[in-house]
Records
---
Amino acid sequence: MLQAQATLVLILLGPPGAGKGTQAGILAKTLQIPHISTGDLLRLNVKGETSLGKEAQGYMNGGKLVPDDLILDMLFDRVGAPDCEKGYILDGFPRTLAQAEAYHKRLGNDVKLAALNLELSDDVIVERLEKRFVCSGCSAPYHLITSPPQKEGSCDRCNSPLVKRTDDDEKVVRKRLAVYHSQTAPLITYYSKGQSFKGVSCNRPINDILEEILDYLQEVAR
Ligand SMILES: [Zn+2]
């Protein structure tokens, strides 16, 4: 069957903690297109011992970063699958300007591209993560606003004390955000020059954010 419409490539940019993963999951379900994380792809290829996975493992064994070209090979291998014909959502990639340029060079212009920048201030991200706890016994996640425990400080399931995750520590979070901003600022400039770029404020309920994104995608699809 011929595809009537060009493949939709939805790129989600935004700082860690802005809710990219959550939004990507909801969008994938709503639009019925796969949510692709290059981190997961790498793990799958390594675990499955594909030829690309073995090559990647070689770099990892040597303590080296897996080169962008190899990640792109895995990505294009994945998006060539039939379930990506209608489109796909990229979350966490590209992360740098070099990755974006290499990706678009290979992708070409035969797609409908939409790049969304999920915006949330560093202070709000830190504040949200401050309210996140995990059970020291069974690892169940809690959030003081969205999913508080019934009894303060202890797990509903196993009664163990709730603790903060070490990577939610303010210092760690601020450092991660600083790295994100320095790597991604040029990326945002790159995409904002194109026609299909939109900043989306994420300091509001998830459904409002989703609605704005879906409205925008309708425009892009025209
Ligand atoms: Zn527990």
---
Amino acid sequence: MKMLGPIPQPGILDISPYVGGESKVPGVDKPARLASNENPLGPSPRAAEAFERAIRELHRYPDGGATALRVAIGAHHGLDPARIVCGTGSDELFALLASSYAGEGDEVLYSAHGFLAYPIVAQSAGATPITAPETNLKTDIDAILAAVGPLTRMIFLANPNNPTGSYLSKSEIERLLDGLPDHVLLVLDAAYAEYVDRDDYSVGHEWVHDRPNVVVTHTFSKIYALGSARLGWAYCPPAIADVLNRVRQPFNVNAPAMEAGIAALGDAEHFAVSKAHNDRWRPWLAEKLESFGFTVHPSVANFLLVSFLPHDAESVRLFLKSRGVLVRQMGSYGLPDCLRITIGTEDELAQLMAGIEAFLFQNEPHRQ
Ligand SMILES: Cc1ncc(COP(=O)(O)O)c(C=O)c1O
């Protein structure tokens, strides 16, 4: 008799596993890694040293309350540490929020080209992910509000959004909040907030103070360059912080990551150099790509979404990969004509552009 084995909860087998950016090219020692929106300059040396120091105490359990880290984050951002909950990356916090506030029969909303972790956490919680259409690759507040129904429990919005690079202004989010019932939780994912320089942008902590249904999540994986340490945090209304503190694992954040996070917050110089690097090279890359006739979608983050039409984006990606340059395919985001390119080091961007020129030379020799 055939044994069936344990059966997962409804919805689990409908999940498409998250596929991260590629990191290796056979035969290439150090590929240009422009597929995962990492800080190409690497972590603050102070953060790396703090991490190393902490590994000597690996036999000790970490502080389950992440007190020193929460106090450091609170002091850095002018926030109440009691409302901060830390996690193993912001991904963990998305999952905890989804499983705490949504379940079978509930709907979790996100925008059509929203971050693909959101449907995964919704389905893991047994809920149904629902997308709202975008306008010009930007979250459309009216479409989100129109999609809110009696089954909606929560909304995930990345601001700025990955992979489109677009952002929502303060007044657009206020309009959304004004139209949203209090029992619907809005999770604002601020993973790329540090890169934004727009007067009409707000990361949104004020809404966490004013409203019962807004959470803002942050990561140390992007400008703070600690992706491998897995460190994120959520700023929450007190009742939501209380819920997260009940459901999270008691020691969910490891001590070296916490020490590295505290040191990273203290290294203002490394932060400024990282920001200045992005401010310099993002417009440079956009201009270069546009000069070749490609459509570069406006981005306020550390990456560009680029349409390679009339060329086949996958052929461009594979050609670049064969030369040791990794960029992200966008088919899984429903944008098969596009690739997403992280702002790398000067050398990496030079390799990228040389690769694109070589691709064009091969495919459109008449243009040369
Ligand atoms: C929009 C967005 N949110 C969150 C994350 C993941 O953050 P973490 O590394 O903290 O889990 C990413 C990473 O690519 C992202 O693009």
